[in-house]
Amino acid sequence: MNTGRPSIALPAIDIDALCRAFPLARRRHACGQHLFRAGQPFRAIHLVHEGSFKVSDLTEDGREKVAAFKMKHELVGVDAIGLADYVSDAVALEDSETWALPYPAVLKAAADIPGLQEQIHAALAAEIRFDHAWMLLLATLAAEPRVAAFLIDLAARQARLGMSASHFVLRMTRLDMASFLALKHETVSRVLGRLVDMRYIDVRRREVHLLDIDGLRAMAQAA
Hints:
- With 223 residues, the protein is α+β, with helices and mostly antiparallel strands.
- The protein has two domains: 15-134, Sandwich (Jelly Rolls); 141-220, Winged helix-like DNA-binding domain superfamily/Winged helix DNA-binding domain (Arc Repressor Mutant, subunit A, Orthogonal Bundle), CATH 1.10.10.10.
- It is built from seven helices and eleven strands.
- The strands form three sheets. It has a four-stranded antiparallel sheet with strand order 1-8-3-6. It has a four-stranded antiparallel sheet with strand order 2-7-4-5.
- Helix 4 crosses helix 7.
- The model is unreliable at 1-7 (pLDDT under 50).
């Protein structure tokens, strides 16, 4: 889907091949549990196996700023590569599971498996491009296009997982969505209400139905 931002399909990492090359730990995380906290020693990047996570930073005045929402097959902790400590918090938005990929040891272990190291590099690069594309979008779009692009992006990510692109549950709160989109909570609620009135979407608490994806796409592309 063209939302006015690059549509980036994240390359899959062959976990089975990686497990044969290197002992990996699969971990469970209850809803609300931290995967890691800013300031903890950086030891691994994490591949989401099931569920979803919120990644956030603290502003200078102590407020939380949501930087990303990570879903199945996506990497968490990439922004700490090259640093001694994690620079953000990652919290499970639902009961979730991850694979811990010790870094850079996992790259060395994958070097002897044809194509596996390239898969990891490609996935890391795609994550960086994905986050950068959102930064550009948030810097250039008004409130309504931001919300429309956010919903279309979630739909595209759902579709890549083989799930419905038109019916899904928002795992994040409205406050988290507003923080990510750099909008006020009231603005997000107002825009969602307008989208309902326009019959572009239907919202029941956190359950969302996309009724007019073409209309949402046109709104997302608006300057």
